[in-house]
Write a structure and sequence with these properties.
The chain has 234 residues and is mostly helical. The protein is 75% helix and 0% strand. Helix 7 packs parallel to helix 9 and helix 10 packs antiparallel against helix 11.
Amino acid sequence: MSTLNNNANQLLEAADFNFARGRYDAAFDQYFEAFTQEFCEVAQKRLTNMTVEGLLSPEQLEKLFTYHNSLDSQRGGISSFNVGLMYENGVGKLKPDLGIAVRYYEKAVEEQIPDAYANLAQILVTGSGEPWGVKKDIARGIELLEKGVEAGSVECAYTLGCIYVDGKGVPANQRKAAYFLAVAYLAKHEHAHRLLILLQETSKLDFSAEVGAAKKQVDEWELLKLTNHGASGR
């Protein structure tokens, strides 16, 4: 991410201050200004988090949706993901529509937004989009999750681990499960460690090789972040 200008920094600091004290309306206004006027990516991510956590009013969601939707063809990526997220969850005045959500997630995947792989794959693997005309496709869902892991998605790693533990739709594979859960655990996923320990206790297998490979994957993520940071800062 490029260096923030003084106004963006001031808005971000003020918004963080208000957010920490539960002043969500003020925080929204400041994050929104930093995002729309200063093109601050950090503010955009903060707004996404507030959306996911249910901290925005219907009016704020509508305002954010309208802006994201207007940006979609110009800036793609995160804006497509956010619009997809809103349609998936039916926030504000929007009713859930997974058919539309999938279209936006597909756009976000084209821009290699890590979390978009996870959300799109979840819809395809579970078949939750079928009432909206999106066919269940486990094979493509698994492929998206694997690509998401390569792109740096912790959620994709955790979801794959769970899939290979349960063996629903794919053959159960304890070693693959251990690898993906270890990736998620090393990347600080809150539930992965407990599931990895449970798998170790029930399988009685030695997963040292899988944990070592997982560490290598997480190290590659860190290198990718540094590379992307350097490229965007030029």
